[in-house]
Amino acid sequence: MKRISLRTILHLVLCAALVGAVSVSCGESASKKAEKEAELKAAEQAKADSLAKVEYEKKMKEAEGIISLLGEEPMFDITTNLGTIKIKLYADTPLHRKNFEKLALSGFYDGLLFHRVINGFMIQGGDPLSKDPEKVSQYGTGGPGYTVPAEILPNHKHKKGALAAARRGDKANPKRESSGSQFYLVQDEGACASLDGDYTVFGETVQGLDVIDKIAAVATGAKDLPTNPVKIISVTLDEASKPVPPTGN
């Protein structure tokens, strides 16, 4: 058996140590690189969020200026990829009317989905989380971060095309406060009659009942989510409700 010299052994040990040092160095380098990339991504997201907030606040301010000029029962056009639904807001539910006006005029609803569709019942939308496909498991839980006090009136029933505010159940929400943004449109009056007196109805459809039926008829999957997205392209002030600019003398 050939003997290995001490010099050879020392050489092998030194080589192994150098390889180990290089491996550790590479590992640390990769880790630091990933950390820097994560920090950069977080900073970019924070900047984007800040700019979006500034833009949203600007739109809100502009919306409030328009709202001050609107009539008591303005009409809005909910334009979807399956057609347009024209709705009228009620004068005697002012808190819900102003909230819907504010959200619509600021562009809050643009790009959201009708995330809950039940044929023979109603269609529901207005959840900001529905813009993000990665949050599909959370659809139906989102909102603008506040609720609206109930305005449940006996003269407003769940007739076909009625516009009503979604809300959490009585146990978690004994005052029956409405979601800050989620709403539903009645497709079947008989099926929704049991909701009378429990939810705030704050408007009605004046044109586009056929579009509600078309949306209600789409195929759905888990949690009544349409398998092919039904998107709210925009919610805009109807031409007939636009304030007339003052004329000079």
Which sequence of strands runs across the widest sheet? 3-4-8-6-9-2-1-10
Record field, number of beta strands: 10
Mean pLDDT over all positions: 89
Radius of gyration, in Å, reads 28 Å
Overall shape:
elongated
Structural class: alpha+beta
Q: Work out the helix count.
A: 4
- Residue stretches low in confidence (pLDDT < 50, at least 5 long) are none
Provide the helix percentage: 25-40%
Instruction: Calculate the terminal CA-CA distance, rounded to whole Å.
Output: 116 Å
Order of helices and strands: HEEHEEEEEEHEHE
Instruction: Tell me what portion of residues adopts beta-strand conformation.
Output: 15-25%
- Largest sheet: number of strands, sense, barrel closure: 8 strands, antiparallel
Key attributes of the depicted protein:
18% strand; 249 residues; alpha+beta; 10 strands; single chain
Condensed summary:
35% of the residues lie in helices and 18% in strands. It has four helices and ten strands.
Structural commentary:
The chain is of the alpha+beta class. Helix content is 35%, strand content 18%. It has helices at residues 6-67, 94-105, 189-192, 209-216, and strands at 75-80, 83-89, 116-118, 122-125, 147-148, 162-165, 178-179, 183-186, 201-207, 232-237. The strands form 2 sheets. It has an 8-stranded antiparallel beta sheet. It has a two-stranded antiparallel ribbon with strand order 5-7. Helix 1 packs across helix 2 (94-105). The mean pLDDT is 89.
